[in-house]
Amino acid sequence: MKHLRDNVGKTAPANFEILPVVGTPCDLYSLAVLAVRTLLVNGSTTLPAMLDEMLKLARQIANPRDVSKPFRSRVRMAVEKDPRLLAALGPQRLAWGQVTQEQALDMIPLELWTDTLAMIVSMFPGIGPDSTCPDLGGTPQGEPHAVFDNVWTVMENLLTRTRSLIVIDWRYNREIHSVVSGFIAGPK
After folding, report:
1. What value, to the nearest 5°, has the Cα angle with vertex 33 and ends 111 and 101?
2. pTM
3. Residue 36 Cα to chain centre, angstroms
4. At what angle do helices 24-40 and 47-62 cross, to 10 degrees?
């Protein structure tokens, strides 16, 4: 006891080691941050602000009132219900110039954009039941690469759907669709 009292206030040598956080869930989180940087940061926004907005969306979706709906549908409903979310995370963030939200949604369908946001949300470990990893330490035993499988599948689907945006005029297709639907329905 005397030895402890004699050393009160004195520094003692302590051995410690800093262990970096590494693993595939951390890599998945890093990919989510890169996706936010690539898709949502432009001249009028910053990475911290957009990352904060994405994490707010992720937390909002993590506590759904109706869990019977698919994750992608819940993301879309949240974005459609809250105009502030669409203003903050809409496809207009892709452009560095002055593009309005309406112009951006004419070029990129809302369903495709909300599916992209859903993919990014799922990449944040431990946010909710839809996260690919339950936490930063949630690496599957023996298959650390498996955490990327779901994201890879979703990204392939998004890329396939995005290809049509390059060569097809969606507005023209919708116009043709409405004319054909009118003929099918018959005269009014």
Report:
1. 40
2. 0.74
3. 7
4. 120
- 97-127 pLDDT tens trace: 888 889 888 888 999 999 999 999 999 988 8
User: How sure is the predictor about 161, in pLDDT bands with cuts at 50, 70 and 90?
Assistant: confident
List the structure tokens of 57. 């969306």
Q: Could you tell me the CA-to-CA distances from 30 to 3, 103, 120, 141, 187 in Å, in that order? A: 48, 30, 11, 21, 56
Task: Give the C-alpha separation, 136 to 134, whole Å.
Answer: 7
How is residue 93 written in tokens? 């963030």
Half-sphere exposure of 93 (CA within 13 A, CB side): 24
pLDDT for 69-101, tens place per residue? Answer: 888 888 999 999 999 999 999 999 988 888 888
The pair of structure tokens assigned to 17 is 């080691």
